[in-house]
Design goal:
It is built from 11 helices and 15 strands. The chain is of the alpha+beta class. It is a multi-pass membrane protein.
Length: 421
């Protein structure tokens, strides 16, 4: 038996209409991954299975500077005590070889006076290396070898002191200390500026001493796969900023807004607002410059993941002029406000410029409608207040009205009531 044909054609049936309907792209939830750069600028990277540990000992000074304070102090304390003990043993052997430790020697010339035990030799070693010189123990010209060891201990002590002072100075004057006062906005924003979709952040310096030759670099880090199938877990893509195009450095006197125009060369060119929230990209911001007071190069870093990028927002102004002085309100440093911004990608915006015009027109209409509603609400409130005041006046005037007087006039044995006011 042949199948029964429907009167409605198949292309106009429900399955055909569903297949012909444009489907919206389905975005998977972004898997939570570790960020490459933390908000405080530290690198979230762990080094494992390093076999050639001896490379760190080839640059001992840098290793000491990179160590934590407790390890550095322990190392220097151990070094000083070890050198004192080593030379104490040498002075004890010198005294033992010369016979200074023999209590039966009287009226003899000693190599080092008052060195009669290992304890006294240890105290003399400390006096020599740190140049205390109490005066009770001193070297004589009787033993040339003792003079040689005295010179050696002084040189070793000066080397240890120089390394310790240099390491402590470098640890206290590290560039990341100055970077603590270089701040970034907590969120990045994407909005329309000069009819172009732009990615913007705000940077600032809390100190009055400036950063000389400040430069800002932006990089987009994402996981990519090459056409050959190679997976690059950390693919760094440089992002061009307006400051890099117009000048070589920034004059970071007041907080600045760093703007990146999302054009066809930008890695954000094909991302819409919905696609951005589902992507796993990370925007790294690097601020470099020379500290004015010390001349040391400093670097401050931060990063923004997709959840920290606000689409359709703009930073509020924080610099005002008060009594001839420019004032910066840092309490509003990271504050943003909503603005009319197309939700499409920059590519779609370039292909269809009418989207931007329609968005701006809708924003202007909504703004006018909100103004009309606000004005009407104000007008109604004023009318209600006027009505309430007139009602109260009426109530007050009613108390002052002339009372009615009633007269009774008898007519034909009956009484009628006349009211006269």
């Amino acid at each position: 038996m042949l199948a029964r044909k429907s009167i409605i054609p198949e292309e106009f049936g429900l399955p055909g209409l569903v297949s012909r309907m444009p489907r919206k792209p389905v975005f998977r939830d972004r898997v939570n991954k570790a960020r490459f750069i933390a908000k405080n600028g530290s690198c979230n990277l762990a080094h494992k299975n390093i076999r050639e540990q001896g490379r760190f000992l080839q640059d001992v000074f840098t290793t000491l500077v990179d160590l934590k304070w407790r390890f550095t102090l322990v190392i220097f304390t151990t070094t000083f005590v070890s050198s004192w003990l080593l030379f104490a043993m040498i002075w004890w052997l010198v005294a033992f070889g010369h016979g200074d430790l023999d209590p039966r020697r009287l009226n003899a010339v000693y190599c080092v006076t008052d060195v009669k035990s290992f304890t006294s030799a240890f105290l003399f070693s400390i006096e020599v290396q740190v140049t205390i010189g109490f005066g009770g123990r001193m070297i004589t010209e009787q033993c040339p070898i003792a003079i040689t060891f005295l010179i050696m201990q002084n040189i070793v002590g000066l080397i240890i002191n120089a390394v310790m002072l240099g390491c402590i100075f470098m640890k206290t004057a590290q560039s990341n200390r100055r970077a603590e006062t270089l701040i970034f906005s907590r969120h990045a924003v994407i909005a329309v500026r000069n009819n172009r979709l732009c990615f913007m952040i705000r940077i600032g310096d809390l100190r009055k001493s400036m950063i000389i030759g400040a430069t800002v670099r932006l990089q987009v880090v994402r996981k990519t796969t090459t056409p050959e199938g190679e997976v690059i877990p950390i693919h760094q893509i440089d992002v061009q900023t307006e400051s890099a195009v117009t000048s070589n450095s920034l004059f970071l006197l007041a907080p600045l807004i760093i703007c990146h125009v999302i054009d066809k060369n930008s890695p954000l060119y094909d991302l819409s607002a919905m696609e951005l929230q589902c992507s796993d990209l990370e925007v790294i911001v690097i601020l470099e410059g020379v500290v004015e007071t010390t001349g040391i190069t400093t670097q401050a870093r931060t990063s923004y993941i997709s959840e920290e990028i606000q689409w359709g927002h703009r930073f509020v102004p924080i610099v005002t002029e008060e009594e001839g002085v420019y004032s910066v309100d840092y309490s509003k440093f990271g504050n943003t406000m909503k603005v009319a911004t197309p939700r499409c990608s920059a590519r779609e915006l370039d292909e269809k410029p009418s989207i931007l015009i329609q968005t701006l027109q809708k924003s202007e209409l909504s703004h006018q409608n909100s103004l009309r509603k606000r004005n009407s609400m104000r007008r109604n409130n004023s009318m209600r207040k006027g009505a309430g005041s007139s009602g109260s006046l009426r109530r007050n005037n009613s108390g002052l009205a002339t009372p009615k007087v009633q007269f009774f006039t008898p007519t034909d044995g009956s009484q009628t009531l006349n009211a006269v006011t």
